[in-house]
Amino acid sequence: MSWKTTTFEKEMFKYFEDENGKECDLYTDFISIRSSLFKDNFFDEIKGKEPHLSDHSSRHIQDVFDRAYKIIGDEQFRKFNVKEIYCLALMILFHDVGNIFGRKGHESVLNIAKVYNTYRANVGNYHNERRIISAGASAHSGKTKSGSRDTLRELHDDSLGSYKINMKELASILRFADELAEGKQRTCSFLIDKGMYDEESQIYHEYARITEIFIDQKLGRIALTYNIDIPLDMDEKAKENLKALLLFTFHRIHKLNEERIYTKHHSELLKVFKSVSIAFNFTKDNLPVDYSLGKIILEDSYPIPGEKNIVDDSDLLEFFKTKNIDYDIDKIIDSLS
Q1: Lower CB density within 10 Å: C or N end of the chain?
Q2: Which domains does the chain have, with CATH numbers?
Q3: How many CB atoms are closer than 10 A to CB 113?
Q4: Average pLDDT, integer, range 122-126
Q5: CA-to-CA distance for 221 and 219, rounded, in angstroms?
Q6: DSSP letters spanning 112-154
Q7: pTM for the whole thing?
Q8: 61 closest CA partner among 150, 178, 223
């Protein structure tokens, strides 16, 4: 299998050529690093190390490239300097490499740097680049040294050669693109249906299978669509499974919306994304059912001091019901049954 060059990369290569000519070092350096990782089957080996994770292969990396480009948009792409685009591309390549050492702590700067040192030719000449890429890629998840999840706050502007690197901006785009890189492409329906993923991972794969994400940069919205197929005859086990999937999906929606609000706090470019729309479609044995669950839209809300935050399942369920009374999980299951 060959690497499928993404739109992000194509536009990046054009930018490099326009700025620095056909013999651009940024182009050759990026291709060298990407080829070294890909030809060594590095991304595919993550599956061997963590077989129950949703997909973290080269296909996921390409998906994050595509999501990042859609987030930035055609008109904004060249508002970054060439070194910033280059650094963002390397952050995307390296953001999940720490999974080769195991899922826990995969985002650590140390684990990312270890892999970078292996696949970066003449690594001793690129100390600044390694620091920038490791720090930016690390901020896509995890915690700070103080235990806070506010990883983007720790980043500060840096430089690569004579170019300024806006670390918070780049890391925010990576973090949001990674959050949006979800969907059927990250799982296998056969393994889900046969129960071949471990119990802890099963729900993540079920969520990936039902999820479609549309990025509308011009209208400043993220559209989430969930396509859920249920058995023709809903026994108690099927009801329990559906309830668990809906509750998990509500949690993931809330997390995605939190990431939207959080990342745009650190990014001028991401401020355009002002809402998340949610739609559910149901079928029974892959046939349409006479049941419609209305859309809801999560928008930036006016902050009211002292307003209760979502801290547990009951808060979450109440939050969705305030948006649309039909989003009562028990009511949904009764209607589908």
Answers
A1: N
A2: 7-180 (1.10.3210), 184-336 (no CATH)
A3: 22
A4: 91
A5: 6
A6: HHHHHHHHSTTGGG-HHHHHHHHHHHHTTSS--TTS-S--GGG
A7: 0.92
A8: 178
